[in-house]
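Thread: Modeling a multi-component assembly for a lab meeting

Hi all, long-time lurker, first post. My supervisor asked me to bring a structural picture of a complex we are working on to next week's group meeting, and I have zero experience with this. I have the sequence lines for every component (507 residues in total). Could someone generate the structure of the whole assembly? Inputs are pasted exactly as I received them:
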Amino acid sequence: MEFIHCMPRTKNIDKESLDKPRKKRSREFITVTGMRDILPQDQKYWQLAENAAVKIANDYGYGKIDTPVLEYVDVFAKGIGKQTDIVEKEMFAFVDQGGDNLVLRPEGTASVVRAFIQHGFLNQPQPVRFFYYGSMFRHEKPQSGRFRQFYQAGYEAIGEDGPALDAQLILMGYNLLNDLGIEAVIQVNSIGCSVCREEYKKALVKYYRQHVKKLCENCESRLAKNPLRLLDCKEPGCQELKADVPQILDYLDDDCKKHFMKVLEYLDELNLPYALNPWIVRGLDYYNRTIFEYWSADDLEGKNALGGGGRYDGLVELMGGRENTPACGFSIGMDRVVAKLRDRNLDVAEPYQPDVFIAQLGESAKKKALVLYEALRHKFKLSQAFYKDGLKAQLEQANRSKVKYCLILGQKEVSDGTIMFRDMNGGVQEIVDFNKIETELTKRLEKYSGDEGVAVIDTEETKAALSHKRFKHDYGEREAENDLNTIDEPAEPAIDDAAPDAGGEDY
RNA sequence: GUGGAUGUAGCUCAAUUGGUUAGAGCACUCGGUUGUGGUCCGAGCGGCUGCCGGUUCAAAUCCGGUCAUCCACCCCA
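Re: Modeling a multi-component assembly
Sure thing. I ran the full set together rather than chain by chain. Output:
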C-alpha cells in the first residue's frame, strides 16, 4: 500500500465527472469503512467516559502516556503472536515512502512496553504504571459495537509480579465501569506460565485428537495453530466437546496455582462480583497467568466484552527488554462503554453550557458589547451572536443555548450607561447600571447555583444510576458477607465528584 | 473472509404495487413583530430516489451488477 492518491478518496466516479464542476459533490466524500465522526452532540458521552477513565488513572497512580499511532510492524508482530487473527489479517499495514514497514496500532500494550524499554523506565521504582487513551485500528468487518478505528483506555503496570497487582487492576476496570453506572461481571481465568501452558496444550490436543470428526473446520486448523482457542468456539459440535475437556486449572504448576489462588482471595476480600471462567482465552499470545474480561451483565456469552486484560510477564523480555520483567494490565473499549451510556438515555449536561447571553443592537452597542464580553468571559459562562444584527435572531439563539439570563445592550442603554437584564425563564426585564453588571449578575446566578454544574449528571435517575452502591449479583455465599467497608473507602470520593456541587471545573 | 437485510430531503418516514411535476413531519432560512426567544400562522430552501447497466411507451418501484450501511458468523474491545 502506498500513498499515491492526493485526491480525497471518492467512490465510483470517473475522472471526467471530477473535472466538470458540479453543484453538489459532497455526498461523494464519505468516511472510510469502519470509521466514523464523533459529532459535537455526542461528545458529552465521550467526555463523561474519558473523565471516568482519567479519574481511575489518578486514583491509582497511573501516569498518562501517549504513544504514536504508527509503529513498526515488529512491535506488534512479536508480542501479539503471528498466528493471531489480529496480526495475521487485521492490521492496517503498509510500506511508507522510505520503505519502512509501518502499521496503525491495533492495541496499546505493545506500544507501552516498547516505550518502557526505549526510555529506560526500568531505572524507576517498579512497578511503573501507565495509563493511555486513544484510538486503535483493526481491519475487521464492522458490526454493532465494532469499528475499524476504536477507542481504548488502558492501564499497564510493569515490573511487579505480586498477585495483589492483578487483583487491583481487575478492581480498577470494574470501578471504571461501575463509576459510569455500567453493571459489569468480571470473568477470570489463569492460563498458567509458558511451562504449564505447554503441558495443558498437549493435554488439550490429545483430547481433541480423539474427537477430530466433531470439530468444525476452523477448530481443526486451530488444533495445530492455537489449541487454546478451541475453548471459546461457539459451534455446537465443539461446545459439546467442552463438557469433558481437561481444565487448565488442573495443569497449573505450584507457583501459578498459588498466584491465582491469591488473586481470587483478594477479589473475594474486595467483594467483587466475579465468575471463574475456565473458557476465556485471550486472543493475544503474550498473556500468561491471570487473564480477565469485563462482560456487561446483560451479555451472558461475552460476545461484546467491554474490556479485558491480564498478565504478560514475558513480553518485556520478548521485546528486547530486561529478562524477568513481569507486567499486568487491561484495557476498556470506550466505544462500547459510550454505547451503553447512550442506551440508557442519560440526561448528561452539555459540557459547554453557558449561563449568560450578551445581545447588542446598533453599531455603538456592538462595539461596547464586544468589549464587555472580554471583561466578563473569565468570570461567567457566556454566549453571543455579535455577527447578527436583529434582536429577535439573537434572542432566538439565546433561547436555544438555554442561558438563564440575556443582557441586552442597545442605543438607549449605551447613552444611559445601563444595560437590560432579561430573565429567560419568565421574560422579566430590569434596567441595571452598566457598572454594576458583575455584582448584579453574580447575585442573580446564585439562585441557580443549586442545580448548576457541568457535573455531567442532572437527573435523579442518573444520580441513582451512578451512585456508588455496588450492584447486586447472584454469586451465592460471597454476596452474603456483604462487607463493603474495605471497598467503599476508595470509591467514596467519586460520589462527590458526581454530585451537583462539582461545579464547572470538570472540563 | 462468509451469510442475511436494507439504501428516497440534514433526520424519521410516505409514494394507492410500473403511470402526471417523488410527498409529509421534524430541522433550517425568511416573514407576520422597524428593540424581544419558547407557542402560533404564512412562505421559502432542501432530491442525479446510493451508483452503473438492462427490461419497458413509461422505473423510486422489475432484473443484473456494484458500492455502502446495519445485523449475524469468524475474531475481538
